[in-house]
Please model this.
Amino acid sequence: MSKKVLVTGSTSGIGRGIIEKFHSENWEVCITGRDEAQVKNLQHELNQVRENSAIGICVDLGKKSETIRLHEYIETTWGTIDCLVLNIGKGNGPKGVDSDFLSNTDLLKINFLDTVWNFNKLIPLLEHNIDGGSLIFIGSIAQEVNVKAPTSYAYAKKAVNTFARYQARRLAPKGITCNAINPGHILTENGVWGKKKEDSPELFIEFVSKNIPVGNIGEVENVAELVFFCTNKRLSKYLTGEILTIDGGTSILY
Model:
């Protein structure tokens, strides 16, 4: 029987890359996103490759009722899952310590509080799997490195890391590993780095040479491979409660 993974925010960027990696490894996948057309298109694309291998649901996981609806959908369709990837948040907004209260509150809610709510409602899908499973939180190096992200985004992601470590201890006796992955600068389709590379190629090259020791910007596939590694029972069953940074060495410069 194929293993099953639920990835939140999986119609584009890092989330989509994770879905595609698991699918390529013969897992059944559940796609979620706020754009129904994107969910259906990706679901159709993956099912063309392997019949009945992908399900999908259009949900806004910033709304509590939508998370409950997602849980009910998975429980009815699959029963349990083998891996949960919580990829929730946004990094755009006013930058610096002078950002206003409302924008700080908004980013804290989206990047931390919504993550906690979704964890609480979706983790039973893993806990009810008698074989245990894997839980992965997607964070950001902004939680410890000044990459000019909004301050509230940075401390919200720091809170996610702390939350993940506490949950790892609680979930370990149930056979569930729990880790957080903090990507650095990642090139995504239609993302900020893709636009910068296209609009200002010389400045893009200069930034990479000065800020990423390995000499190239990260790709979605790099993050997806690390996420998938965390589900390998033979290689990573002893790996839990860890904060894994994947940034080409950016964080060692600070």
